[in-house]
Specification:
The protein contains 19 helices and 15 strands. By secondary structure, the protein is α/β, with parallel strands linked by helices. A five-stranded parallel β-sheet has the order 3-2-1-4-15, sandwiched between helices. Strands 6-13-7-8-9 form a five-stranded parallel β-sheet. A three-stranded antiparallel β-sheet has the order 10-11-12, with no helix packed on it.
């Protein structure tokens, strides 16, 4: 009888890939986790219980067929595992690295709920696709037959790229317009290399270029080309711009030098990793070297800033968050990594003001958690008189992102927006109030996860294909 490759969770403990020692990894921007060996990947995949109702799959925004590719990995059928993984996810090696699995698939794993420790889904997913790249299984999105229709995509982030991949596979002519000099959006310039090394992103973009996707870089829609002109060039347009406007801070001294935006800070660091000359780093404006750094915020962007500052050689790094650890929106795994690397978290703390024309201290208001609000979260309340100064020469604002004034910039009447400034679109199709115009990702949802942008891009691509085919059928009558 063949040996049972699954249900090993009762005898095999959960085991993550080896993590580099904090004293070594905080000196560089390389990824902190090693790769599984084939035997270890199979062993950990074999811990899956193959449960009848796979909550891991239902809590994945892409509804990846996780139990199927775990079983195939356990059986050593890696190429099939990759094909199953790639069928629902355009960038599985990226999601395996940066998805907050502890809040999604792994956090809802049945054996985790039973106390055995979750299956290491993200690490196995990364291993499968990294192996696929090494073995040459990842194919260029080349269509069997070309179509005459063209689609213009505004924004080269994960949503736009996922849509571009699906549309090219179907033979549609695709042009991607992006404001930056490199495609990838936040994958390229927002997420540090210790979470997502840049060659991982660049090789996907190279595959899309080889497959026939045209990239128009350094292109600001509304300045270098009008939205109306893009619409006139293409049979359909997909808006996938993301949200890049940083939420601001108020209070006395909020305009002091030394208070910077998280995205500016992370972009400068990531540009340096590409070998670019970054004057703001050389001048020290966006460098943490030798400084006392305070990061304000509790999401994953705040964690990225904290850990980047440590690697830049900060004297000290502190993170202010107005709620407690349990209520922090960022990944608990990232909090742990940051603490191991030397960051200090100041829970129940909020900025009340800033000292100095060039900042030298943050006035910190201590908080407590009061009664729950309508969402069920406890509301932070100020503790009267509990204010103290915290020394800082660099303050990084990581409070989240909001939409830019897109409709004003593009001067396009008829594009409905919500009261938050996001584009009003159908989640499952991306269709907007304008004919042949679609929108996906953060510009629809607000600041969200990469995996949701991928899901939206794939869904919108399917809707665009259906609408193009319907229009073609009408024209043929």
């Amino acid at each position: 009888m063949a040996k049972q490759p699954m249900l090993k969770f009762v005898s095999v403990p959960r085991d993550m890939p080896e993590k580099r020692d904090a004293s070594l990894r905080n000196q560089d921007f390389d990824e902190i986790y090693a790769e599984y060996a084939a035997e270890k990947a199979a062993e950990q995949a074999g811990r899956c219980s193959q449960c009848g109702v796979p909550y891991c799959q239902s809590h994945c925004p892409l509804h990846n067929n996780i139990p199927d590719w775990l079983r195939l990995t356990a059986e050593g059928r890696l190429r099939e595992a990759y094909e199953v993984s790639q069928a629902t996810n355009t960038f599985p090696e990226i999601c395996g690295r940066i998805c907050p699995q502890d809040r999604l698939c792994e956090g809802n794993c049945v054996i985790e709920q039973s106390g055995h420790g979750t299956v290491t889904i993200g690490s196995v997913e990364k291993y499968i696709t990294d192996t696929a790249w090494e073995e040459g299984w990842v194919e260029v999105p080349a269509p069997r037959e070309e179509r005459a229709e063209s689609v213009g995509i505004i924004g080269a982030g994960p949503g736009g790229l996922a849509a571009a991949d699906m549309l090219r596979q179907a033979g549609v002519q695709v042009t991607v317009y992006d404001r930056y000099d490199r495609a990838g959006g936040l994958l390229t310039y927002g997420i540090p290399g210790f979470k997502l090394e840049k060659p991982v992103v660049m090789r996907r973009i190279e595959q899309l270029e080889k497959g026939g996707v045209t990239f128009v870089q350094n292109c600001n829609v509304g300045e270098d080309i009008s939205f109306a002109e893009i619409r006139s060039k293409h049979d359909a347009v997909l808006i996938a711009t993301g949200v890049y406007k940083s939420r601001d801070l108020g209070g006395p001294g909020a305009g002091a030098k030394g208070i910077v935006k998280a995205l500016d800070y992370l972009t400068a660091s990531n540009r340096a990793s590409f070998g670019d000359t970054v004057p703001e780093l050389e001048s020290g404006e966006l460098s943490a070297e030798g400084k006392r750094v305070v990061v304000i915020g509790g999401g994953d962007t705040a964690m990225d800033c904290v850990r980047t500052a440590i690697r830049q050689g900060a004297e000290s790094v502190k993170c202010l968050y107005r709620r407690d650890r349990t209520n922090m929106p960022g990944s608990q795994r990232e909090v742990q990594n940051a603490e191991e690397e030397g960051a200090v978290f100041e829970w129940l703390s909020a900025p009340k003001g800033f000292v100095g024309e060039t900042v030298n201290a943050v006035k910190v208001q201590k908080m407590r958690l009061g009664a729950p609000d309508a969402t069920g979260r406890q509301v932070p309340e100020e503790i009267e008189g509990a204010i103290e100064d915290m020394g800082a020469e660099l303050v990084i604002k990581a409070l989240g992102f909001e939409p830019e004034e897109l409709t004003t910039l593009w001067d396009e009447p008829g594009l409905d927006v919500t009261r938050w400034g996001t584009i009003r679109a159908e989640y499952q199709t991306g269709r907007t109030s304008l004919e042949r115009v679609y929108a996906v990702g953060d510009i629809v949802r607000g600041a969200s996860l990469v995996v949701w942008a991928i899901r939206d891009g794939r869904d919108a691509a399917q809707a665009i294909l259906e609408d193009l085919s319907a229009a073609q059928a009408v024209a043929a009558e």
